[in-house]
Automatic annotation (TrEMBL):
Family: Belongs to the aldehyde dehydrogenase family.
GO MF annotation, one: aldehyde dehydrogenase (NAD+) activity
Claim: Zinc-finger is one of the keywords in the record: no
Active-site residues annotated for this sequence: 244
Species, as recorded: Paenibacillus radicis (ex Gao et al. 2016)
Name listed for the protein in its UniProt record: aldehyde dehydrogenase (NAD(+))
Amino acid sequence: MHVYDKFYINGQFVKPLGTEQIELINPANKQAAGKVVLGNVEDTQKAIEAAKAAFKTYSKTSVKERGEILSRLHEALSDRSDRLTEATVQEYGAPVSVATMLTKIAVDAFSHMKETMESYPFIRTAGTAKVRMEPVGVVGAITPWNANATHIANKIAPALAAGCTVVVKPSEFSAAQTEIFMEAVHAADIPAGIINIVNGKGEVVGEELTRHPDVTGITFTGSTLIGKRIAAGAAANLKRVTLELGGKSPTVILDDADLTKAVPLAVGAGFINSGQACLAGTRVLVPESRLEEVKRLMAETVEALKVGDLWNEAAVIGPMVNQKQFERVQHYINQAIEDGAEVVVGGAGSPQGLEDGYYVKPTVFANVTNDMTIAREEVFGPVLSIITYKTEDEAIEIANDTLYGLQAFVFSGSTERGNRVAEQIVAGRVSVNGLHDEPKAPFGGFKQSGIGRDHGTYGIEEYLEPKSILGHNAVL
Ligand code: NAD
């Protein structure tokens, strides 16, 4: 059994000082898949020390030098694409088409960021002042398991573009992906200390990053609960904090939408990444007059989805990442039934023949009101709720009646109307008439979905501080 017992600190693979281990379980068959050795506070401090030392020179590099580093990372990760995809299928349980897409996003993060950085105005003027955009310092990057390599890439790329050095604390459940990432960093021949990677628990490695005075920025993707804890911890020395947190995104199907197109898109939006996606559209708002049609089409669409058989290109739903996540999703399904929701398709338990893995039944509920737990809390599994509305205004009101504000989807027969509704939804991203993505557009949330934005120029700015130089032309 493979033991993941390497960290990447100061340009070298090093053995952990921490001795605690956790077992990794393949979620598709519940078989032991490896062990990860977890870092302790001292491991974390060594990584921070290396990042601090490297910052002195790295922060002074030119855009050209940083561009070369981003290109090398792009190439090194690209060379390992197949292995990364394989690890994502085996360790996380993503269907191969999803894992391939996640790998591509991770690889492309470096080339996109290089392009963005090359046209970014690091030096500008404000009135008579010269303004220099300077790196914040050492950044602690903490990532979740639902797209581990993608999140690492999306955090490292802008931080490096800005001139920061980083210490990454990946999800402890993603050690295979992390190991491949470390190998790519090493192969890219990045000067020592710029990128450091330490596996470990959030309460140990994550909290040390949050607490340590030499870490001046934290970028975190994960749950709202932990995000709040990090923000509170980081406040002690006023670190810059970027938080990409949870969601309970609405999918608004307007009454002029072609339901034969809108319903499959709504299912796609809700079940992205087997429903283990922060941006999943899990509240499907439909006109009351078209409820029966929507229910019929939902049932047909969901029953046709390929669940399991992860290496089949047609597979769309994989298992939940672990036992805890499986139980969490079952809990929400049972609670919704107790609260009076109607099961349109799916329900509690595992799909027939897939009991050996952490599979849940892709589930759609109707008869849900927006005050029910299933409509308010993030399930993080393939579970959708249909909520009806009478008027467009009411649809917008329900869409915005949530603690979150990460993403929304709007489907309408009229592009103009779709855009009009999109403008009224309080969310960091709204996708009109499709499941669109734009890696250069800001990604992040309003309200309790977070603080700050990833991607593009907005992403770089999370790692920069403006410095005004007054009298830069003055002569004494
Ligand atoms: P999580 O919050 O439990 O853990 C995320 C990371 O934080 C892990 O690396 C974990 O070890 C670490 N952590 C845990 N406790 C910590 C602490 N006290 N201090 C510092 N770090 C700590 O989330 P998860 O279960 O890994 O991922 C699922 C969550 O992530 C969902 O809520 C989902 O919505 C969210 N998510 C958000 C986005 C986004 O971009 N908005 C993207 C993906 C996932």
